[in-house]
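=== RUN LOG ===
request id: a7f3
mode: sequence -> structure
chains: 1
length: 99
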Amino acid sequence: MANRSPIATRNSALIAMIADEDTVVGFLLAGVGNVDLRRKTNYLIVDSKTTIKQIEDAFKEFTAREDVAIVLISQYVSHISWQILYIYICKFVNTICNC
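=== RESULT ===
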């Protein structure tokens, strides 16, 4: 184990999560969590106190980050904030299809 080379962070990408506590904790235990130098995490734990605005802001932040390759959103959260997801998907499809 000591002879392993360090993981390359220059070309690495993260998985960002917007989910309930159990889902996020499971991914964190699997080693997916990250905290950068500005103390920004790659996850948002959604509970009954989380507002739709907080979810939308986290989604916009994660999709704008260069180091995030995948944004994982639990089904529960997607039902709460489906509008922002729909708008993002439409923009993405229009970009690819040049419609």
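=== NOTES ===
The radius of gyration is 15 Å.
The chain has one domain: 14-97.
=== END ===
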